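NAD(P)/FAD-dependent oxidoreductase, pasting as requested.
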Amino acid sequence: MVDEYDVIVLGGGPAGENAAAYAIAGSTRTAAIVERELVGGECSYWACIPSKALLRPGHVLAQARAMDGVTASGLDVAPVLRRRDAFVHDHDDTSQVGWAHDNRIEVIRGTGRLSGPRRVEVDGRELRARHAVILATGTTAVIPDIAGLRAALPWISRDATNLHEVPGRVVVVGGGVVACEAATWLSALGAEVTMLVRGTSLLGASEPFARDAVAAGLVEAGVRVLFETEPVRVDRAEVRDTGEGWIHGGPVTVAVRRGGSAPDDRASDADAAEIVADEILVAAGRRPATAGLGLDNVGLPEGYVAVDDQLTAVGVDGDWLYAVGDVNHRVALTHMGKYQGRVCGDVIAARAEGQPTTGSRYAASADHGQVPQVVFTEPEVASIGLTEAAARTAGYAVRTIEQEIGVAGTSLARNDFRGRAKLVIDTASRTILGATLVGPDMGEQLHAATIAVVGRVPLDTLWHAVPAFPAAAEFWLRLLEGLRLPEG
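Structure tokens follow.
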């Protein structure tokens, strides 16, 4: 027998959940989500939610220490971890399954794979989709091919977000968002952290001043940041598979080479220095979770699944296969995956009902130069749209304004407020192409910039968006005043 649904989603993370819900909303259509782990996915249990639960206590402590009359001694690790566990429901997805049930979405436990057009196999059970199959399987952590690294059973991001004990000394391999955030909370929890960064800066896609601010913040917190440094050999005499978030054995010795050696020189490590730690955390990128997904059964190669702006898979006839979230390699952010899921679901619903899909609602336009992101380090980096370099590369004629953003509202919030912001302006349309805000709690200020960028709000109109006083948003007025001055 073949079980039929209108929509079948492979992967139960936020992107897949949103796609399923939107595809059947207000109709009699049916949907099923196939999930081999926990409904709610990486974000709910191993990424965004637990990482922010771990980061917030450190931010609160820093703010308290920056306030006269407030006594703050430090973090108590056990309650911090209990609070994290409460947010991930102790890895119990009952509430998420209940949400699916309430939205008429059946949850099918198991490993799904494409077995042909509109067909899915789940551990021997055959399913058929009348309208759509949506791939929402996400990505998995990459372990680089470094001598001894895999054998040492290093931590990956899942271990770091679900840690049950804090290593005394940690080596973090990587300089991106995951590495910087993990270094932030590990240091706040008392670990001695060393970061090994291949390049010359952290957060390579960010504005230079933002990269520098995060590096300075980490160093100020006691993190040792080594640029142009990479591991060439890892040794761990005592290796134990103790489980996720527990230290995986005895001390780790990491041989590193500094100075940006060529890849073909890495095998020779006679000149490498050594760092000894209690654990090594690898945050060096991710790969698509498509192995064994059966892409070859529908004529697609292994790897990321390319899609158009309606999230329809490129290279598959019939407008039945879609991909949302990290697996399509457009934007690896949960909120953008959910956004894609909403667009995808609307497209599927319209096609199922024979309606046109020509309106802006049916295209994931924000994926192109309108992506908001917050890096929850100390200080935070909040950004939307294009950096100056990206805008110039794209051919825009731009003007920028970059300045400190200490105003009454920010100064009242904490004694040591240090913040900086930058706007990238399209001189032809006099609208904002991108904004980067750096400082405490700048993530809470980002949506105003997002609306300005996505709405292409002219600067002359923004002049009449009066910020309340004395709130942190007053810095918007200062930025606009800076744009009134002659350039240079």
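Note for the archive: The radius of gyration is 24 Å.
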